[in-house]
Amino acid sequence: TEVPNVRLNNGVEIPQLGFGVYQIEPEETVEAVSHALRTGYRHIDTAQMYRNEKEVGQAIAESGIDRADIFVTTKLANDKHDFDAALAAFDQSLADLRLDRVDLFLIHWPLPTVGDGNYVETWKALERIYTDGRARSIGVSNFQPHHLRKLHADAGIRPAVNQIELHPYLTQDELRAFDADHEIATEAWSPIAQGAVLSDPTILELARTYGKTPAQVVLRWHLQLGNIVFPKSVTPGRVRENFDIFDFEISTGDLGLISALNKSERIGPDPDTFD
Ligand code: NAD
């Protein structure tokens, strides 16, 4: 299977389909990531707050796959926003992941309640890391347009991606358009809404039409919209299923039917209040 790449605004290529490890227990992570790599996934999305970077690092080291062939993302913990704390936390991530650089490092949440535009200072630490060559690209997560405008006003380096909650019940049309207008790639977290969209009658009907599973239909919808996705599962059959989405094409009309399921309904926190 050839997973297409998305070219980021600095020329770095990221596989459009990856494997997310949020809520995978450390004891389960080596096996889960190893299985994903055996299945063909070459993009792993972790975070300091997931507490499984060490196990991700172990699975990568033991895989025997060339480091250059695996795209690794991690994210700054919410309690490490201060400049020096961010640099130290990043050092710890590299040590835990057993890497000398990551492919993408993100500010996990804007935390606007911590202080007005505090993330602009945090971004300076990410710029330093990028300039030092220890992250091939840097970006943000859970940023709204007003956060991005504030960041852009001060940033020397523009974020390459914005990772946001995005699925058929929260299609984020405005934010996706804002990202696109500013050459920011959109990554969709909880791409299948942690399973909530899989029993939707429209999705079930389309799954029958295309002879694929509900998860495959929803993930394919993301890819055709241009979103980068990394569904999570610890069940080997589902990990394979979520990777097997390159042998069919959803029609433009059916893409529209899925997008019309939008209810602007979050399953996760609101970035404007979450601290
Ligand atoms: P997801 O939408 O990927 O759903 C995962 C859940 O869906 C699984 O636990 C399982 O119960 C079910 N599932 C998975 N594949 C299935 C299949 N084929 N059939 C039926 N059920 C299936 O949700 P997620 O884990 O929240 O999001 C994916 C990744 O996004 C995370 O692992 C993490 O890397 C990232 N994420 C980032 C943020 C952020 O704030 N930046 C927040 C949440 C998640």
UniProtKB/TrEMBL annotation:
Gene3D superfamilies given in the database record: NADP-dependent oxidoreductase domain
NADP-dependent oxidoreductase domain boundaries: 22-262
Keyword terms: NADP, Oxidoreductase
Protein origin, superkingdom: Bacteria
Family named by the database record: Belongs to the aldo/keto reductase family.
Protein name: Aldo/keto reductase
